[in-house]
Write a structure and sequence with these properties.
The radius of gyration is 19 Å and the shape is globular. By secondary structure, it is an alpha+beta fold.
């Protein structure tokens, strides 16, 4: 039995650069739990009723932005508006909650990509976050469309491509392992670049490399149901798989670990 504060799972790549294999690590206090080895075993996670800010550590009655107290959510550079809406980034204009943070997170090369995570979607990420971003989203295939010089530029390209592609993950389809094997990501990338051509965006096309990702899942459920500690105190069953930031039970119930950042829990295996 282990007690501690939930944070998003760390995910490492145990495969190659293009054939990616997800390995999950859950950190509870000072312990690291190798979650892949827990497949097909009983697991019980009990919410103890307390929530602590993952940034300042203070107790809070409610979690904001996946683990922050309201003061930190309102002031932390990690939760600035451009995190969710990169087209609103002003770091390139010298404006940010923390300019030193922005230098390392906004004023660096960003990728615009297409990924399949139960459906085709467009997204952006820092050049240092490949393949972490795709693993967090539960993508099974991805291709980089282009490289941009900063977060704002990537956001503007994404806004344009959202006219043709979704930008949200269909979490139920993703957890069911829904695939479209006829989808040609290279062709979709070509379409995206043609759509951007001549519109004045700042970007450079990247190589036509398709990344494939495997997750530790015994079998995909036919039905999935989201679990929340806001409604129930115990998440209990046989661990059937892990994908994105979700733990999936044999019953099809799925717990998003990242959503419950800061929740104090007791875990039994």
């Amino acid at each position: 039995m282990k007690t501690g504060i939930l944070r998003k799972m760390d995910i490492t790549n145990c495969g190659s650069a293009t054939q990616i294999s997800a390995n999950y690590l859950l950190r509870i206090e000072n312990e690291i739990i190798p979650m892949n080895s827990m497949l097909n075993k009983p697991i019980e996670i009990k919410f103890l009723g307390n929530i602590y800010c993952i940034r300042c550590g203070k107790k809070t009655s409610r979690s904001f932005g996946q683990g922050y107290c309201y003061p930190c959510f309102s002031t932390a550079p990690e939760t600035e508006e451009c995190v969710l809406r990169p087209e609103l980034c002003k770091a390139h204009l010298g404006e940010a909650r923390d300019l030193e943070f922005a230098k390392n997170h906004c004023l660096i090369d960003h990728f615009v990509y297409l990924a399949w995570s139960g459906g085709l979607k467009v997204g952006i990420t820092r050049n240092t976050q490949i393949p972490t971003r795709w693993l967090d989203q539960g993508a099974s295939r991805a291709i980089i469309i282009c490289r941009t010089p900063n977060r704002y530029s990537a956001g503007m390209v994404e806004v344009e491509l959202k006219k043709s592609y979704a930008d949200k993950t269909n979490w139920q389809a993703m957890l069911k392992g829904l695939q479209d094997n006829d989808l040609d990501l290279r062709l979709e990338k070509e379409k995206a670049l043609n759509f951007l051509k001549g519109k004045g965006f700042s970007y450079q096309a990247e190589a036509d490399i398709v990344y494939c990702i495997q997750y530790p899942i015994l079998h995909y459920p036919e039905k999935v149901k989201s679990f929340s500690f806001d409604k129930e105190a115990e998440f209990k069953g046989i661990l059937n798989g892990i994908k994105g930031q979700y733990l999936i039970l044999d019953s099809g119930r799925a717990l998003n670990i990242r959503t419950h950042g800061g929740f104090q829990v007791e875990i039994k295996f």
